[in-house]
Design goal:
Number of strands: 41
Radius of gyration: 25 Å
Structural class: mainly beta
Oligomer: single chain
CATH architecture: Beta Barrel
Number of domains: 1
Helix content: under 10%
CATH superfamily: TonB-dependent receptor, beta-barrel domain
Number of helices: 6
CATH class: Mainly Beta
Largest sheet: 22 strands, antiparallel, barrel
Strand content: over 45%
Length: 721
């Protein structure tokens, strides 16, 4: 046991800056020591869950004098209650009162969604996009990002993703491991759109997405099993309960799929095989008084469509938070700390033109560690008509890309250290019962230091202001407007890590500078009854305009029949503008229709003279569709019966920066049925891409398609006292 903890601590320390090339002698064998450690963490967490499931009924009885006894689950209602949160603004305000567009998914929405993985459920909103039209079910981990409002021309996420206020983006590459969060652990998901650097700093260019996890459930134990074609299985388990003034909640999830062959049938050869995915995740949350401790782990492996291409991921992390109220009682505060260790390993190959053979060309082992701390607070004054908030945070990231070039035997260890930190202040003024004004700013600084001596260390800073105004009438109408600035520092991955996908090789660039965004938005909405009928309508619309300077793209350097060479470069300026319209109508007692539409216009306005990206001026950003839309019909009864039918569509987009490789528009139809089996069980059947639409996701080196039809069914079981 001592050696296990010693090894985990060594993993936390991360790669040494003085590590010699001889340390790579075992790299071709792809050792996974850290992943074994993560697996041990996962097994421990699962053991805790099983023990808790046995003991929690007794715990609940022992504390019944302090808690309300559990009751039967209430019938799910589609209409949402107002959500109070401190995540989107670091102030206790309602999402609907924010001067920016906001989205909320409750746990019931996510559990009923026809989506086998969480990020597929999130992109049900046209304002939320993933990279390459794929999800974590079938995409490479380094392409699992988040694209809000069409400003993500590469795989890196340009939105900040949080779990209970703690950053979730990969510290080395900025991408997102969506499978880290077991579905049963989620209480709700919140998205605040628009530049979010004023309160949060780095990475919040397009906005902030927050997973809020459960403190406890209305049941002692909950399990869910879903199984379908492609040998797809998702099993989740969660247990929670109280003890004295505290509570414990633990969850775990296993997801396996044999996947499908992405390469189009007319282009396939003997090397093409299904893209498989296996993930195990566990999370434990302990709340005691004002203290919260979270620990989670992930172990994943994936096949990338050919025998020699595969990757593995290991993650382990812990965070702690302490919150309270001010001595005057008119405010609150929160301080937190985090420590994470991750390991990503991947093989890259060169596939023959006839796709009947392949050769291994590159092996990568990318360890990274992340430490950080921060705090924020708020106070009310002027008879609680005004609130002031303040805070700061600091992070230290250390990562390396340990590379072994197979055909030459050469080794490389590019990587570096990134220290970043900042402070912010803001004021929110309730000028009248219907009018609210907010203003704030943040000052950030960061320092990049490479592990080698071939490139220079660099430091930079950024100021991110934000102003907003919102108005709410007594008849349900709202208006809002805001202006903001945001930034994103280049990741260690963009600075130092090269990679190859088929015949497309992308080089790193240690000279990259930060991205800066200036933007504004106006919007409004209305909610109320339609005439004298019982039907209720909710509608909301937003127009936004963003200017992104020095956007980092994978610029095409040269093209040949055997190799497309790209390099990460800064563009001059990008314009990203769009319109978002959302509506829902409860037209009958148990029926709801919701619609959503997003028009996205993202193009290169100017390029840096003499750069490889000069030829992209006037082009659309790659991987950004012209539009996204979705319409859903919902049925939900008081007895627990529920069903949905959804139709979604996405416009044409380009795969490359030169706009030479278009990807056609596509349409998807999804559906789900929920059947109650008594008070504690439920049967589910769901279908994604019902009509098996062929969705183009890639054309280089050959045409590839997204996920085909997936049909799966299963049970959800809740255990009460």
């Amino acid at each position: 046991m001592y050696n296990g903890w010693r090894n985990f601590c060594l993993a936390i320390k991360g790669p040494r800056r003085d590590e010699s090339p001889s340390a790579l002698q075992h790299l071709p064998m792809l050792e996974f020591a850290t992943m074994r450690q993560v697996a041990r963490i996962m097994k421990t967490a699962l053991f805790i869950i099983i023990v808790m499931s046995i003991m929690l009924p007794d715990v609940a009885m022992a504390t019944s004098g302090q808690q309300n006894p559990p009751t039967k689950p209430q019938a799910n209602k589609q209409k949402r209650e107002e959500v109070i949160t401190v995540s989107a603004t670091r102030l206790p305000v309602r999402l609907s009162d924010l001067p920016v567009a906001a989205i909320t998914w409750e746990a019931r929405d996510l559990e009923r969604a026809p989506a086998i993985v969480i990020d597929e459920a999130l992109r049900s909103s046209p304002s939320v996009s993933l990279f390459r039209r794929t999800s974590s079910r079938d995409s490479h981990p380094t392409a699992q990002g988040l694209n809000l409002r069409g400003i993500a021309p590469s795989g890196v996420s340009r939105a900040l993703v949080l779990i209970d206020g703690i950053p979730m983006n990969d510290p080395f590459g900025g991408w997102v491991y969506w499978n880290r969060v077991p579905l049963l652990a989620i209480e709700r998901v919140e998205v605040a759109l628009g530049g979010g650097s004023a309160p949060y700093g780095n990475q919040a260019l397009g906005g902030v997405l927050q997973f809020v996890t459960r403190k406890q459930m209305d049941t002692n134990l909950k399990m869910q099993l879903l199984a379908g074609n492609e040998s797809t299985v998702r099993f989740g388990i969660a247990a929670g309960g109280g003890f004295g003034s505290g509570s414990v909640f633990a969850s775990a999830q296993v997801f396996n799929t044999n996947g499908y062959i992405q390469t189009a049938s007319e282009n396939r050869g003997s090397v093409d095989e299904p893209i498989s995915s296996k993930n195990k995740a566990a999370r434990v949350r302990v709340d005691f008084g004002n203290f919260t401790i979270n620990a989670d782990g992930l172990s994943g492996e994936r096949g990338n469509g050919t025998p020699l291409q595969e990757n593995k991921t290991g993650y382990g992390g812990v965070s702690a938070a302490w919150n309270g109220v001010t001595m005057s009682g008119n405010g609150g505060w929160n301080v937190y700390g985090l420590a994470r260790s991750q390991l990503f390993e991947s093989n890259f190959s060169r596939v023959d033109s006839d796709r009947n053979g392949e050769k291994l060309v590159l092996r990568q082992r990318v360890p990274a560690t992340d430490f950080g701390a921060g705090g924020y607070g708020w106070s009310s004054f002027a008879k609680e008509t005004s609130k002031i908030s303040y805070g700061g945070d600091w992070r230290h990231v250390n990562g390396q890309s340990k590379e072994y070039v197979v055909f030459s035997g050469a080794t490389r260890t590019p990587g570096g250290i990134q220290d970043s930190g900042g402070g912010f202040g803001a004021i929110d003024w309730q000028a009248s019962p219907s009018l609210a004004v907010s203003a704030g700013f943040r000052l950030d600084a960061w320092h990049n230091e490479p592990h080698d001596t071939l490139t220079n260390a660099r430091s930079a800073s950024a100021v991110s202001p934000r102003v907003g105004i919102s108005w709410r009438s007594a008849n349900g109408a709202t208006l809002r407007g805001s202006g903001y600035s945001a930034f994103r520092a280049p990741t260690l991955n963009e600075l130092y890590r090269q990679f190859r996908v088929g015949n497309v090789a992308t080089a790193a660039n240690p000279s990259l500078v930060e991205e800066r965004l200036w933007g504004a938005e106006v919007g409004g909405g209305w909610s109320g009854s339609i005439g004298k009928s019982s039907a209720t309508l909710t509608i909301d619309g937003t127009f936004y305009w963003n200017s992104l300077d020095d956007a980092i793209i994978n610029a095409t350097v040269s093209v040949s029949p055997k190799l497309v060479s790209r390099r990460r470069e800064n563009l001059g300026s990008v314009t990203a503008r769009g319109i978002e319209i959302n509506s829902s109508i409860d037209f009958a007692e148990h029926w709801t229709i919701s619609t959503a539409y997003a028009w996205l216009d993202s193009f290169v306005r100017e390029a840096i003279p003499g750069s490889n990206s000069a030829a992209t001026v006037g082009n659309r950003l790659p991987q950004v569709p012209t539009y996204r839309t979705r319409a859903t019909l919902w049925y939900h009864s008081d007895q627990g019966w529920a069903g949905s039918l959804s139709i979604g569509a996405m416009g044409e987009q380009f795969e490359d920066d030169l706009n030479l490789v278009p990807l056609a528009a596509a349409r998807l139809v999804d559906g789900s049925i929920e059947i109650p089996l008594g008070d504690a069980a439920q049967f589910t059947i769901r279908a994604e891409n019902i009509f098996n639409e062929a969705v183009e996701i890639r054309r280089a080196p050959v045409l590839a398609y997204g996920a085909p039809r997936l049909v799966y069914a299963g049970f959800t079981l809740a255990v009460f006292n």
